[in-house]
Amino acid sequence: MSNEDTEQYREFINKLQGDEHRPIALNEIKNLLSFKSSPEVVTTIRDFGISKIVQCLNVADKNDVDLTCEVLKLCFEKFQVGDVIKTYVGHIMYLLRHQKDCVRKLAIDEVYKVVATDPNLLPVQQYIDVYVATAQLVSDTDVGVANKAILITSNLPIDTYPKVLEEMKIALEYNSSSKCNALEVIINISSKSFDLFNLSADLGYIAFMVSELQSKDFLYHLNILELLSRLSVTSYGINYLVKEGALKSIADIVAGFDSNPLAGLLISGYMKFFGCVAHHYPKEIFDKYPVLLEALFSAFDTSDHNVLPVALDTLGFVGTTVEGKLCLVALGSKYTQTIEKLGQIIKNSPTEIKVRALYCFANIISIDKDPSVPKTGPVDHRVTLMTREWFRSLSERPPSMEIVFGLCKNPFPDIKLAAFTFLDALCQHQWGEELVARTAGFIEYLLDRSVDYTKESKEVKYDIIKRLSNSAAFDPNMISRLQTYVEQGPFYSESQLEVAMEDGD
């Protein structure tokens, strides 16, 4: 800044100590810095420091405090990322522990900038106190500050975590909201590596979480279950839960639902947990914890529209993989009866349930969502036979593919999209392609671009036609039409052709 501007800045800074002149001086600093470039402003700020501005945070007038935060934020924005903390680490520590929410938010935003840009920007040994002070804010009373602290603390350099994990003990002494925040951080850290998981387990955090499933606070209970499900998808996490008897404890809770007054509130959360674990380890769960399957299948007999959607999502998630499909079919009549019920749900339920059921059935039929299945080559013949039989059970009269055709023509966009997703799963099998070819008017309907579709439906329909364009189920003339559709893309319209012809003329 010019000498004149610098002198003005000095004058404004000196006025901050008097109550009478403070608001005016803060506004004058704000106006002076707002329209100056960062390099010239940073030099002046460094020369005069920010101590006198920070002191303005300790006044009783809330308006003065808010204005001071605005001025400090403006000052900080002029620095390169990380330089504020490097230059004023003492002040940042003070701001992180300040009693006023807006001040803590100001400070934590600076830490967030660093972590979002490069978690290694600040050497851990030199700035560990900043990281620890930030970690302590996961139990902050201000939700915005707490959420940002969770985000920061979950993405720090690895060598900060032994100290940070120790700090989480303090948050576990507060209310359920604080405990949930701390446990979320613990799970986020534990999921990064086997060593960090072991550190969390050694500190007693995982055992503490399992014990908290006895809580009568059902929202807190469900949060704990959600966090455990995220941990259980790691090999070391599920091994711990099995070895320490935690998974059996969870199964026992489900088994006791008949006498649990909270069962109706908790069953959805337990199904989600079961679905998450069984998706990755279906054989182990099916063999050792049949009570979880019983809870899932019994949900298909309920009229509770809060539980049924979760059951549909869970069954679809478990049946997404080939291993999941094989484990399900090995259950015999219990599973086939559930598939028949799924067909009835698709035909006779309200829109929301019908849509969830279609996506569930699509996952069970699909093979593309399993990363273990090769993208080219023959499909496992067992899967071919299973999925074809499951699809046939959808409807005897009218035939199942006519039911799908009717759903694809449904005027409601959400049903149409779900139906196309289901059809795409069917067309991942040769028998599905052949059924489309044999269903009168179906392929012509798919090729008709004049029918109104949403963007999402057009994209799914395009994927279906792309599959069919390489199918042996159609004659050469139809294959040519399908390939032309693919070449034109999902959003081609006749109006584009007309414009192109006019341009040519």
From TrEMBL:
A Gene Ontology cellular-component term: cytosol
PANTHER family, A to Z: 26S PROTEASOME NON-ATPASE REGULATORY SUBUNIT 5, 26S PROTEASOME NON-ATPASE REGULATORY SUBUNIT 5-RELATED
GO biological process, one term: proteasome assembly
Superkingdom assignment: Eukaryota
InterPro entries: ARM-like (IPR011989), ARM-type_fold (IPR016024), PSMD5 (IPR019538)
Protein family per UniProt: Belongs to the proteasome subunit S5B/HSM3 family.
Source taxonomy: Eukaryota, Metazoa, Ecdysozoa, Arthropoda, Hexapoda
Protein name (record): 26S proteasome non-ATPase regulatory subunit 5
